[in-house]
Amino acid sequence: MTANSRVGIVIVSHSAEVARGTVDMVRQMVGHEVPVAASGGNPAGGLGTDVASIIAAIKKVWSPKGVAILVDLGGAETNSEMAIEMLPEAWRGKVVICNAPIVEGAVMAATEAAGGGTLEQVRATAEELAP
Amino acid sequence: MNAETAAEGSALITHGIGLHARPSVKLTKLAKTFASSVHLRGEGVVDWVDAKSIVRVMGLKLREGSTVHFRALGPDAPAAIDALVGLVKRDFDEHSAA
Fold first, then answer.
1. CA distance from start to end of chain A
2. Which of A4, A18, A31, B3 has the most CB atoms less than 10 A away?
3. Which chain A residues have any C-beta within 8 angstroms of a chain B C-beta?
4. Are A10 and A17 in contact (CB under 8 A)?
5. Where are the beta strands (DSSP E) in A16-110?
6. How far is residue B96's CA from residue B83's CA, in Å, rounded to a whole number?
7. Are A50 and A42 in contact (CB under 8 A)?
8. In what helix (H) or strand (E) does residue B38 lie, and over which residues does it extend?
C-alpha cells in the first residue's frame, strides 16, 4: 500500500506550535505511512488560521481516498470550510472536517487511515471520541 | 476444509504503564493487518472489544501485571493470535535491548 492509497490528515490550529506538535505525535505514535500536514497561525506569525495555508496543507497530503481535517476552535473550522469551498470541484466531496478533539482525534484518525480505512471510517473513528 | 478458524490466546502485560496510547496504536495497527475478526478483553472484564478499533482498545486502560485475552475468528485467526500475543510478550517492541 503506497502513501497515496491512504486518507490524508490535515491539522488546523490557531497555534503553529500546536499544529506541528500534533503532527509530531501522529508521526511518532502511528508512523510515517499516513500523509499528515500542519496549518497553524496567521501569516503574520501570530495566533490564527489562514485559508491559503489550509488549502496548501490539503494539497500536500491529497489522496484519491480523501483528506480528513482536525481543527481546534471557531475560526479553524470556518476557515477550513472556506478552504474546502475553494478547492477544485472534484476534490470538495472528498475533504471532511472531523468533529473531534484535535490531538486525540488526529491520532485516532491516523491509526484508522494507516490500516487503509475509508474517509468515512477515518472520520467516524475520530468522532467516536466526541463528547 | 473450513476456512473459518477460531483461535484464542493470552499474554501478561509487562509494559511499565500498561496498554497506554502508543502500545494501543501498535496493537490496533497489527490487528488490522489480519482478515479475521479479532477481539480482546482485560482480566476480570466480561466484554470483548474489537481489537481493530483504536478508540475501544485505548479505552480499556489495561494495566501492567494484568493479563490480556485475545480471540480471533476467520481465515488467518491462528496467525493473528500468534502475532498479537507476540507483540504483548515483546513489550510492544519498545525496549530494543529486550
1. 33
2. A18
3. 28-31, 107-108, 111-112, 114-116, 125, 128-129
4. no
5. 36-40, 67-71, 95-98
6. 18
7. yes
8. strand B37-42
Q: Which amino acid is located at A111 in the chain?
A: T
Closest CA to B7 of B60, B59, B93, B84: B84
Identify the residue whose cell numbers are 535491548: B97
Which one of B15, B20, B39, B95 is the catalytic residue?
B20
Q: What is the pLDDT of residues A85-109, one digit of tens each?
A: 999 999 999 999 999 999 999 999 9
Whether B20 is catalytic: yes
For the residues of B51-73, what is the DSSP string, one character each?
A: TT-HHHHHHT-PPTT-EEEEEEE
Please report, to the nearest 10 degrees, the dihedral formed by the alpha carbons of residues A55, A60, A61, A62 taken in order: 70
Q: How much is the pTM?
A: 0.89
Look up the ipTM and state it.
0.82
The three three-digit cell numbers of residue A55, written as one number: 488549502
